[in-house]
Amino acid sequence: MDYIINGQAEGPIASKLLATGFDFRVLRPFVAEDGKGYSVRTLNGKPTAVPVSNALLRYEEWKQFDDAVLKAVRPRLRVVADLRAAGLTYTIPNGMGKTVFETETMSDPGNAVISMDGLRRAANDRPKYGIQHLPLPIIRSDFTVSARQLQASRNGNTPLDTSMAEAMARRCAEEAERLVIGTSTEWPSTEAYGGGYIYGLTTHPYVNSVTITSPAAGGWTGTTLLDDVLEMKQSAKDDYHYGPYALYFSPGWDRYLGADFKTGSDKSLLQRLKEVEDITAIRTLDYLTNYTALLVEMNTGTIREVIGLDFTTIQWEEQGGMELNFAVMAIMVPQVRADANNRCGVVYGATA
């Protein structure tokens, strides 16, 4: 077991991380074309290849694992991908060396006045500040490759098997997605660390709630869902969050979104919803349950993905180098936000 306590490291992995200021690249050593081992470190502010003695994987083999991880991760991250595409991220340098992210909330102070001579004074309100702590846990999944498997792939024409890397990357991506939605059982929103909680889109205490109608209810039509979505949008505006919005549905809605908006219509329900002003994206999220929906203002004042470590693979050896251990790791945590007056730009629609 590796651990760090009171500034002292126990175990080879912990020792390497502590000695390098928690630079995870020390756990990605590679064999270069000259046959020598290196790991990339930041020295004097520049990435530098530092000689090491424990490198086992060639650069091309690392690339195979990394490509497999990225291939597996991308399809699983829908809401996370939307946040990144919209620029709603905050990157923490050397996130491995931090356990809590501290931020402030601020009220909206002051007002503006109009006068002819400019002598009329506006209210000089002081903003109200509040401190919030966001835990930064590590999402991790492990797999093992024997040194014999590695050598066999080099001696023959069979490429290195990366199926385990893909499977573990999918598990990590699923947890990252669940954290954003608020359905993670690995780190539920009730678990505190450093005085803070990780709230998702469905679990933040100041998310606006709207009751929507189940499509299984008698008399339900496409117009019913359209009215519910418009009510969700109005709820966000009543809390001073004016969009643009992303609209997310649980998988149970798929069969209805693809049906005609109404009898004899030339549009599907999905096409009609896309015509609602300020809704810029409509997606299905795998880990929303039942007949639920989320309307999310795509704004940094509402949500952002805090990234301390993007998806990466690390390696260490055991059994005298006969067993190569790998872990896919990431520090990716949602920060669902409300202002000092507890107004939030997320609306959660659930059936009664």
SS field, number of helical segments: 8
Going by CATH, the homologous superfamily of the domain at 200-303 and 341-351 would be: hypothetical protein PF0899 domain
Counted beta strands? 18
Radius of gyration: 25 Å
Shape: globular
Uncertain runs: none
Kindly identify the CATH topology of the domain at 200-303 and 341-351: hypothetical protein PF0899 fold
Q: Main β-sheet: number of strands, strand sense, barrel status?
A: 5 strands, mixed
Structure overview:
The protein has 352 residues and is of the alpha+beta class. Among the domains are: 1-55, no CATH class; 200-303 and 341-351, hypothetical protein PF0899 domain (hypothetical protein PF0899 fold, 2-Layer Sandwich), CATH 3.30.2320. It contains eight helices and 18 strands. The strands form six sheets. The protein has a five-stranded mixed sheet. Strands 6-16-17-9 form a four-stranded mixed sheet. It has a three-stranded antiparallel sheet with strand order 3-4-5, with no helix packed on it. Strand 4 (37-43) and strand 5 (46-52) form a beta hairpin. Helix 2 runs parallel beside helix 5 (163-181). The protein is globular. The two termini are 48 Å apart.
